[in-house]
Amino acid sequence: MKITIVGTGYVGLSNAVLLARKNTIIALDIISERVDIINRRISPIVDEMIEYYLKNENLDLLATLDKEIAYRDSRFIIIATPTNYDPNLNYFDTSSVDQTIFDISEYNPHATIIIKSTVPVGYTEKQQRKYPKLKIIFSPEFLREGKHFMIICIHQGLL
Prior knowledge:
Blueprint: E1 2-6, H1 10-19, E2 24-28, H2 32-39, H3 48-56, E3 61-64, H4 67-71, E4 76-79, E5 84-86, E6 91-93, H5 95-107, E7 112-115, H6 123-130, E8 135-138, H7 145-155
Parallel strand pairs: 1-2, 1-4, 2-3, 4-7, 7-8
Antiparallel strand pairs: 5-6
Helix pairs in contact: 1-7
């Protein structure tokens, strides 16, 4: 199954690496240096498990800067892009998630979108109203995303 992960920070990369053991994963990012080192199987972040999997496991993982390659034919698209919260304004900057959802609507409106980025309460419902033909799910990230996600995937037989 082809799954796209948007964003290769800790949450996105841990999901990508774990899912790439049994699925075709395309990791989309906007930073060319991150894409290059991931494709060389080097982790751009310090994490023992991610480093081990990239170096030692046979992963079906390709990192890219190309949205069309990333979104085309993906069954699931996981959004793990950064959002910023300004406590003084009580405001979330969700522009990276907003843009990603728009892009998905253009390239692959049949994919199921899973938001793992931190978003304000009601955000997913608002996006679902804005894009009624898209399937949008919110699945919150965890502090130790890699370990928690791996345990869930093993339990579900995905890894």
